[in-house]
Amino acid sequence: MAEPFTVRITVRGYETDAQGHLNGNVYLQYAEHARWSLLQAAGLKQNDLLAKGVGPVNLETTIRYHRELVAGDDVDVTCTFVWGEGKSFRVEQTFRTVDGDLVAEVFNVGGLLDLKERRLVRNPAEYFRALALHPQLLGAQAS
Hints:
This protein is an alpha+beta fold. It has helices at residues 24-41, 46-51, 124-131; strands spanning 5-10, 54-65, 74-83, 88-97, 102-114, 119-120. The chain has a single domain (5-138), classed as Hotdog Thioesterase (Thiol Ester Dehydrase, Chain A, Roll), CATH 3.10.129. Strands 1, 2, 3, 4, 5 and 6 form a 6-stranded antiparallel beta sheet that branches. The model has no long low-confidence stretch (mean pLDDT 94).
């Protein structure tokens, strides 16, 4: 199995809370950044999706915290799309220190919204596969 796509991010001081920990909302921003970075690496830009009349939507997000991050820490955020049948897909993400210690896990359920009909499209992997230059990075290659 290939290594998951990974983005390294340095925690900035203004992203921390009163206890000096990375603010919980920032974990969501880092996760979103990693997802869009993966789409870009696959050759798929936000404008490509919009031009096709679709856009990704978040249906559910769960965060599991394992240890703290503080200002100056570097964190590697992974991103793996998990495709299934139907209108939704999952994205599994881990946050790890550069030493490999597990910091957090983010589990996301998403879909691809038809912007005109305001409904989720069937088989979103097909849209990603058709638009991406490197769909294998998304795990959306034809079987």
